[in-house]
Amino acid sequence: MEYQKYVAKNVKSIEISTIRYFFNMVNQVEGAISLCIGEPDFTTPEHINEAAIKALNDGKTFYTPNAGLLELRKEIAGYMKRRFKLEYNPESEIIVTIGASEAIEVAIRTLTESGDEVLIPQPSFVAYGPCTILAGGKPVYVPTYMEDEFALRPDVLEKYITPKSKILVLPYPNNPTGAVMSRQQLEAIAQVVEKHDLIVVSDEIYWDLTYGVEHSAFASIPGMWERTVTISGLSKSYAMTGWRLGYIAAPRELAAEILKVHQYSVTCAATMGQYAAIEALRNGDEDIARMREEYNKRRIFLLSSLRNMGLECFEPRGAFYVFPSIEKTGIPCEEFAQRLLYEAKVAVVPGTAFGENGRGFVRMAYATSMENLEEAVRRIKNFMAGL
User: Fold this and answer.
1) Fewest Cβ atoms closer than 10 Å to its Cβ: which of 44, 53, 109, 142?
2) Which domains occur in the chain, in start order?
3) What SS3 string covers the chain?
């Protein structure tokens, strides 16, 4: 049967994530150390697990409201106010989603019509472009550069804006680069957003994981609250990737429309997970601080090790990635990643997985044990010496 004739053209036009492609390759190489996946190696803190178990034992296994438990939405609102000075009404301006990934998808789908252009800084997380295509829009990739520490420059952004531009995706702290943007830099972007009447989808899933700098939420910039759909979640901060819990905060009118798309897509996030999220937000600040401190030690070690090998790498101040340039090797980043895996048994992701502007780089995640990182560095060093 010729199945392809039944598949929508926009689905056929997107590809499987290169990150997952390399992650799956690791399983074919015995003894390989994976620096591929942006997933904490910590297990979910026990008090959070216990909250979910209690919910199960108490029979809390039924649907919640589409937007999520009000108790959880109140905790999210309280957390955003406490940490980032953001004010949202938990009853009408917060939606609990199945991870930040679903939040990205429903936000873009709600805001995008056929022909709309979505501005996406590059390199960046792999989902923004495909989600735009599936929604009928056109992704427009705006380059960022290592000499700017991969911050989005307002003058560069201006060059890519057309009358069809509608949405700016703002992914900071950034995956894959680890870049952050200062409040002053965000204020400059805000001027462009207002000038061109754009709406912003601000993916701030890593906002708890910054090192030596304070995160500024884009919606806290004057004039930007009403123009911003803020996305975050619990996966990275609380080591809860498999729980699939994210959230959207947006002005009431936008949130009401996003909720319709969310409702027909998934109904609601898993109930027992929502009770776990309440516990995490209420009593998990020390967990974040403990894990962030360990990530910082790994960050410093991996960055200095790569520089000592002669690889050029700016200092990432957020998330848990380093993004070294491998151009000096003369090897394309895809070939470099494959050879490193099969010859040195270390898995990294080629920069082109995150767009053409990632060419010449590889992403390494330090969300793994120091023991693994030390061995990975030893192997990478030997590999580099043999080139």
Assistant:
1) 53
2) 3-44+286-385 (3.90.1150.10), 61-283 (3.40.640.10)
3) CCHHHHCCHHHHCCCCCHHHHHHHHHCCCCCCEECCCCCCCCCCCHHHHHHHHHHHHCCCCCCCCCCCCHHHHHHHHHHHHHHHCCCCCCCCCEEEECHHHHHHHHHHHHHCCCCCEEEEEECCCCCHHHHHHHCCCEEEEEECCHHHCCCCCHHHHHHCCCCCEEEEEECCCCCCCCCCCCHHHHHHHHHHHHHCCCEEEEECCCCCCECCCCCCCHHHCCCCHHHEEEEEECCCCCCCHHHCCEEEECCHHHHHHHHHHHHHHHCCCCHHHHHHHHHHHHHCHHHHHHHHHHHHHHHHHHHHHHHHCCCCCCCCCECCEECCECHHHCCCHHHHHHHHHHHHCEECEEHHHHCHHHCCEEEEECCCCHHHHHHHHHHHHHHHHCC
